[in-house]
Amino acid sequence: MRILTRSEIQKRFNASRAIDRLVDGFICDWHGDVQLPASQNFRFEEADGDCCIKSAYVAGQPTFFVKVSTGFYQNPSRGLPSNNGLILGLSAQTGEPVVLLQDEGWLTCIRTALTGAIVARLMAPETTQCIGVLGTGEQARLQLQCLRDTISCRSVVVWGRGAPQLELFCRDASQMGFDVAIAPDAEGVARKCNLIVTTTPSRGPLLQREWIRPGTHITAVGADAPGKQELDARIVGDAAVVLVDSRKQCAEYGELSHAIRASLRTVDGTISLGAALATGDRLRTEESQITVADLTGLAIQDAAVAASLLDED
Amino acid sequence: MRILTRSEIQKRFNASRAIDRLVDGFICDWHGDVQLPASQNFRFEEADGDCCIKSAYVAGQPTFFVKVSTGFYQNPSRGLPSNNGLILGLSAQTGEPVVLLQDEGWLTCIRTALTGAIVARLMAPETTQCIGVLGTGEQARLQLQCLRDTISCRSVVVWGRGAPQLELFCRDASQMGFDVAIAPDAEGVARKCNLIVTTTPSRGPLLQREWIRPGTHITAVGADAPGKQELDARIVGDAAVVLVDSRKQCAEYGELSHAIRASLRTVDGTISLGAALATGDRLRTEESQITVADLTGLAIQDAAVAASLLDED
After folding, report:
1. What is the rounded distance in angstroms from the CA atom of residue B99 to the CA atom of residue B102?
2. Side-chain-side CA neighbours of residue A235 (13 Å)
């Protein structure tokens, strides 16, 4: 079994190859050509931690993947990152373990960010005046980094809790080539931007319906578990297009779930990312429309980025 | 993360420490002090293979475990073993991966065999005249090896398909210090033995009710998935004691499931191994009673043997 460390993975990683794999993965999922067993979840009350085990196999591929990811929220006080994990690849021909990717959670972050870029290709407004970012963590940085390769806009407005984190984020965004401004609140982001990415662990709506400019697209990646929410349910209710990575998951705990509970939208009133990619139709039919992508995260994405590392150069 | 290979694991393995851990694990399971998410399962039709992911955490332990095990049944024709797999241990305090046990499936085999020995302590007849073994694979050998440390009987009668495998089994059993005879069929085993271990992947009853001598104990480990069966349902129906490792699993696909379907026994008419170990009561109340142990395999066993490897010497 081959073992790759986080730094080896990062060195080997090729974003465009990973995007191709992600697109294939979403389309295969939509065609039903994947095996995705239900996640396994642990909760460690005393240590304030959790663990999620997600596995996926795309029919016809040589390898299937098992991802173990952990989040222990008191780790930073010990000088450790909150998130950790690894991905194991096994042969779908012989069952032998073939690769262990000790990515420490990085592949989960990058696949989420690359999916944000894939969504932007499908849904971003014709002209992005300014990119809005809620949150200042690793996911916020990676989303911006992946958007840089997808759209030409180089203006960013960011909002987050904590001045030191905001300062660090601005420094990093500047180094990526963006002009960055800090907004005093989420409303300040919404009033200025027509492409917004929300990347926080919020448990209540940060963006209100009234603040959203016509023609805005919002990609929400924070709501990946029950209880989480970043968008006012009326945004999801009023959007001209609501794209979901998984109808099942989004209806259960994504942004969509809050709109369903408020009777503002039904599952049938959404389009899945796999379907959108398969047909390739432009989702926005008028430039004044508000659109939303609700991304909860699928094992198929982990399998896709992991497989991209095994592709021959 | 520490990585141990199969041979390092075997060198480090201490059976009595593992048994202590297994007993603790079954008792904790009975007390409800464990987290056992539902298994994840893959089926690879073309390659005739499957994969099962089982995870377990015993409350209060420093480590939780994820086991990935595979069975690819055309492997022997390529010179590869059918079974493979590994166990990953992660910190329940920080989520960090702490150990990778590349046991290639060996720990699953040995924990099943050690559980057979634990059951024999509870359920074997006062005097075992002869040990019967159905099957000639690695599990048959390991069961015998573990029984050797538990009961004094040194006579074995074995039945299996395939003369070469039978010959190899007899050679190995002799080397363990047993007098071994080959029976022409399963009936020949049942007629001579009062402690029988069944270790085959059979999909229909091998042992008939009429053949079983009064006072016999049978430990059945083959029925670990739907469709498998080694015992006539009437044996489970008529037994004075039916011990199960998991009421849920045994009712779903263990030997018990066939007796339930034939209305010969209910789940309430069984005792779980954890309960039996917690109370420590002798299960057989008369020497003429027939008793059965139905073992389907639990993630808690994997966690127990894996944890035993991390114990300080």
Report:
1. 10
2. 29
CB-CB contact of A94 with A64 (8 Å): no
| Kind and range of the H or E run holding B124 | none
A130 CB-near residues (< 8 Å, 6+ apart) = A153, A155, A156, A157, A192, A193, A194, A195
Residues whose CB is less than 8 angstroms from the CB of residue A61 and which lie 6 or more positions away in sequence, other chains included: A92, A303, A307
User: How far from the centroid of its chain's Cα atoms is residue A207's Cα?
Assistant: 18
CA atoms within 13 A of residue A6's CA, in its CB half-sphere: 12
Residue B272 backbone phi and psi in degrees, to 5: -85, 150
Residues 6+ apart with CB under 8 A from A62: A91, A92, A93
User: A58 near A28, Cβ under 8 Å?
Assistant: yes
Between CA A132 and CA A277 the distance in angstroms is 24
Q: pLDDT tens, A58-111?
A: 999 999 999 999 999 899 899 999 999 999 999 999 999 999 999 999 999 999
Tokens 């989960």 belong to residue: A108
Q: What percent of chain A has pLDDT over 70?
A: 99
State how far the Cα of A202 lies from the Cα of A184, in Å rounded to an integer. 17
Token pair 């992946």 in the structure block, residue: A146
Q: Does A36 touch chain B (CB under 8 A)?
A: no
CA distance B305 to B22: 7
Give pLDDT, residue A312. Answer: 61
Helix (H, G, I), strand (E, B) or coil at A187: helix
- Helix, strand, or coil here: A93? coil
Q: Among candidates A303, A313, A270, A312, which has minimal Cα distance to A21?
A: A303
- Find, among B265, B195, B199, the residue nearest to B236 by Cα: B265
45-64 of A, contacting B, C-beta below 8 A = 47, 49, 51, 53, 55, 57, 64
Tokens of B144: 């015998």
Do B88 and A53 meet the contact criterion of CB atoms below 8 Å apart? Answer: no
Q: What is the CA radius of gyration of chain A?
A: 19
pLDDT in tens, B82-108: 999 999 999 999 999 999 999 999 999
Place of tokens 């022997």: B76
Contact B196, B144 (CB under 8 A): no
Range 190-229 of A in CB contact (< 8 A) with B: none
Strand partners, B198: B134, B220
- Which of B49, B90, B95 faces A95 most closely, judged by CB atoms? B49
* Helix H or strand E encompassing B66: strand B63-72
- Rounded to whole angstroms, the maximal C-alpha distance in chain B is 56
Asked if the Cβ–Cβ distance from A53 to B55 is below 8 Å, we say yes
Q: What is the DSSP string of A106-132?
A: HHHHHHHHHHHHHHHHHHS-SS---EE
